[in-house]
Amino acid sequence: MLPRDSGDESISVDRLIAFAPVQSWCSRRQWERATPIQYAAQANGNRPKLSEKGLLTPDNCALALIDHQPQMLFGTSNFDRQAIINNTVALAKASRVFDVPVVLTTVETQSFSGQMWPQLRAVFPGQEPIERSSMNSWDDRNFVAAIEKTGRKKIVLAGLWTETCVALPTVQAIHDGYEVYVAEDCCGDVSQLAHDNAMKRVIQAGAKPVTSLSTMLEWQRDWAHRETYDAVMDIVKNHCGAYGIGVEYAYTMVHGAPAMKFPEYAIRAAIIAHQ
Fold first, then answer.
1. Which of 74, 195, 212, 261 stands the most exposed, by the fewest C-beta atoms within 10 Å?
2. Is the dihedral of CA 20, 23, 29, 33 positive or negative?
3. ω before 161 within 30° of 0 (cis)?
């Protein structure tokens, strides 16, 4: 899923590495040093408005991430747990790229579930999750108020576990007039049966099943939207498996772009945990 140049089969290395043009918010040097997400965040003011007609756009939805916490992941058995982390972080990064409002929430952090995953917290530095005691986040006034504050009537929602922390708020949000899109690959449950029954229930209630990748591509919609192109490709190459490797191959082997560089591995020094 790479863009094509109309009327020109040769795509320059510079354009592949930096498909988005240099914007007025920075110099060329500043732009070259910016991360893809930083660039997209600054360029979002120039992002084109997408047609809706039943689809998700960055301007008509909010993202809710519910109870992505260690204890909840321990109990998940229907889906590869590392994949759930990967997919959830990818979706979280995409929300940053497209400036989609995000509501984070956790349940019984100190007494049972543990802190929200550090990989997820790193995507939203400075944003504190809404702490709850209720299994159903729609029963929590602070959570509902945060959703209402976004002004969006479409919610992309994911969480652990599907049968409770996803199904219950989904059913009630739909009852209250919201459209809910459940990012299924960012959810999980104690068994395949529990997850499948929960997904059947929310779909019967009117929810739409989506994935982290399908949601990001729906927000991007057109490869000619240069403002977010690089950041989307960065997420694809880091989180989307064979698709990402295919993109890297096309960049380097077909178009002659330099290989993507990851931070060099450094062995962490030993830390004395107990004095």
1. 261
2. negative
3. yes
- pTM for the whole structure: 0.84
The span from the CA of 84 to the CA of 201, in Å, is: 21
Burial letters 220-250, b for 16+ CB under 10 A, else e: bbeeebbbbbbbbbbbbbebbeeebeebbee
Among 156, 66, 166, 148, residue whose Cα is nearest residue 107 = 66
Residues 22 and 28 sit within 8 Å (Cβ to Cβ): yes
Kindly report the CATH number assigned to the domain that includes residue 204: 3.40.50.850
Strands 130-132, 208-210: pairing kind: unpaired
CA 78 – CA 89 distance, rounded (Å): 19
Say how many C-beta atoms besides its own lie within 10 A of residue 13's C-beta: 13
Range of the domain at 37: 20-48+222-254
Q: Mean pLDDT for each consecutive 10-residue tract of the chain (275 residues)? A: 42 39 37 51 71 96 98 97 98 98 98 97 97 98 98 98 98 98 98 98 98 98 95 97 96 94 91 63
